[in-house]
Amino acid sequence: MSAAARLSGVNPLAALASSVLIAVPLVLTLDWVSASVALVLVLMLLPVVRMPARAFWRRSAAIWIAAPLAGVTIALYGQPSGTSYFRFALADITTGSLALALATTLRILAIGLPAVILFTGIDASALADGLAQLLHLPARFVLGALAAFRLVALIAEDWRSLGRARRARGVQSTSLRRFTGQAFGLLVLSLRRATKLATAMEARAFGAPGKRTWARVSLFGWREWMLVATSALVVAIAVGVSAATGHWSFVGA
Questions:
Q1: Helical ranges in 119-221 per DSSP H
Q2: In 3D, which of 221, 178, 192 has the Cα closest to residue 13?
Q3: How many whole angstroms separate alpha carbon 130 and alpha carbon 17?
Q4: Contact at 8 Å (CB) between 1 and 215?
């Protein structure tokens, strides 16, 4: 059973709430203990989700690359403190910058990996239903965002189609000129499609005033509360261990 199938019956709003629960406390601290504890707990929960290893590494590859790169940048140009190990121009590697780099790397992993797990195979329509029915966000805003999200997948195909059309016409130019012309064509095509979609949605009374009805009822039951409670428990343990060991460091303090 894939992660998408495992979480298919869970309201996407619960996944969103869980991601926020994990992210906010980790953003508010600069220590490495809370991030490392949260990261270990999240990785321990992977067998419960049953996400295939290949899918996990493919979807999280960007995070595993971005986190060390951010750490290297902080190590070189972060606020220097303590013993200095290497200094060249603006770069200054110190004990403090290395500790901050480690904390930054772990925080990116601890925040990004749960989002990858929770939002694998998420249904955008179900998320829109939850935002409108449970959080009572304006229907026009929710439906407009859903329509825009649906069109994002078409951008890559439009880009390839424009490239094939330009090659078929024998358009030969430098890479910069080709990119600029093709990007402008994509912008024009996107604006035309957006105008047609807006007209079609208006004709179907998507912007009508009054209370709106929904084809599907969005429910928030015990499975959703279990997911939110698990995320809260992960954060509570991470913050508790960090505070107990004296490593908790509030941002701005």
A1: 124-133, 139-168, 175-203
A2: 221
A3: 11
A4: no
